[in-house]
Amino acid sequence: MAHAHPNLNLGRVLIAGAGVTGKSAGKALAPLCDAMITDANSTALHKAAEEIRRHSADGADGADGAEGANITPIAPEEIDWEQVDLVVTSPGWAPNSPLLVEAAAHGVEVIGDVELAWRLDQAEVFGPRRTWIAITGTNGKSTTTAMLETMLQAGGLKAQAVGNIGVAVLDAVVGTQRIDVLATELSSFQLHWTNTFVPDVGVFLNVAEDHLDWHGSFDAYAQDKAKVWKAPIAIAGVDDPTVAAMAAQAPKAITAFTLATPESGQFGVAGGNLVDGQGRVIAPAEGIDPAGPAGVLDALAASAAALAVGVEHAAIAQALSTFRVAQHRGQTVGSARGIVAIDNSKATNPHAADSALAGFESVIWVAGGQLKGADVAPLVRGHAHRFKAVALLGQDRELFAQAISAHAPQARLMLTEQTEPGAAMDEVVAWAVAQADPGDAIVLAPAAASLDMYSGMGQRGDMFAEAIARELED
């Protein structure tokens, strides 16, 4: 029998899922309480249980006062719900998953990995409580979180980007290397499965239709994201109309950031500089990476969060001057003859592509893939004046072509019929480079998912960068 921590009362815990999150939860819980793990895949289930036992036997948990370990694999059909007090689920499991529906029917609380990490931290199981900064939004989460990590570290704080970027939240809390400030990128799935989580700072960047099949409705999706505003310091991207409306209805004061000249108390842009709520200069708006409005908005959000936890203006300015965006999120992958090439393969929906395109005046757009029912026409209409040429690939290229013909008829247009990933990218990039003149930007912002042709958005971006290197540098 494992020994419970004196500040923690989890009861008998069932871990739902034997994947990465389930194993991470098991390693944290096995020394602390009676834990069970379940999965329909019997082989994965028993492998996970054995890995958790080995981890605990090695003494790698680091929990204050934890002794021993207990983890029991159990098939879903063998669960006795009278013997379960709490379910910890993988965030990808939807609320209508049969096991989670059954848990709810028996009055058993269901939480996710973030909520579990929060409870362990609040109970000081793994040392003194940490400072939590939660960042969410449909787009820009990773860049904002990475910027924030750079700012926090420049300010001398022991900080790390965790969650959907870098280290898993549970691993960050349980790990033997102490982290004082968690810059936590959170998905709507992770936030859905939080019940008592209250970060110190909560940032809600923007929201657009996504994952509606999982959440059931756009409103449910947005409300799950807005859970970060339980924080005593809540930050909102008010250039997004939905976020602005939700912030206006919130029962507390919320700090806004905007690309416009800010009103009193808002973060914004004035005189070519990022400014804080008191109008003090933070850093120049020029030179921020990624280029364009999306990068400036991310920098404003990260600056507001960093200032909220005591980082000084000079440290933020220093961080922004050195920060470079991660791969596939607006990264410059080529520059020659006055032409720049941008890899924003991460723009897997029209909302993300909107931000990716907005930073450039004359664009050769590389797009296409799986639209998954999204309407690309508003995106094309909004950026029609930027499009000098458009190169299309992938499953829904004809839908893109129809939108271009209707709303940007002046743009030169090509569609590749190639279905082999490398050949398709090579063809569209060769054509795009041939259309480009000094001052033009070749922008991969597909506005669509990649899995019709590529193993993921990473492979798509890598192939774009490789093709650009061959063509643009010739």
Structure, described:
It is a single chain. By secondary structure, the protein is an alpha/beta fold. The chain folds into three domains: 13-111, NAD(P)-binding Rossmann-like Domain (Rossmann fold), CATH 3.40.50.720; 127-322, UDP-N-acetylmuramoyl-L-alanine:D-glutamate ligase; 331-472, Mur ligase, C-terminal domain (Protein-Tyrosine Phosphatase, Chain A, Alpha-Beta Complex). Helix content is 36%, strand content 18%. The protein has 17 helices and 20 strands. The strands form four sheets. It has a six-stranded parallel sheet, sandwiched between helices. A six-stranded mixed sheet has the order 15-16-20-17-18-19, with helices on both faces. A five-stranded parallel sheet has the order 3-2-1-4-5, with helices on both faces. A hairpin with a 2-residue loop joins strand 15 (331-336) and strand 16. Helix 5 packs across helix 11 and helix 16 packs across helix 17 (457-472). The protein is globular. It starts with 12 loop residues before the first strand and ends with a helix.
Summarize it.
This protein has 474 residues and is of the alpha/beta class.
The proportion of strand residues reads: 15-25%
Query: Biggest sheet, in brief?
Result: 6 strands, parallel
Helix content class: 25-40%
Biggest sheet strand line-up: 7-8-6-9-10-11
Q: Give the low-pLDDT segments.
A: 60-68
CATH architecture of the largest domain: 3-Layer(aba) Sandwich
Gyration radius (Cα, Å) is 24 Å
What's the CATH H-level superfamily name of the largest domain? Answer: Mur-like, catalytic domain
Count of individual helical segments: 17
Shape: globular
- Tally of strands: 20
CATH class of the largest domain: Alpha Beta
Mean pLDDT level: 91
Give the tally of structural domains.
3
CATH topology of the largest domain: UDP-N-acetylmuramoyl-L-alanine:D-glutamate ligase
Counting helices, strands and paired strands, the structural category is alpha/beta
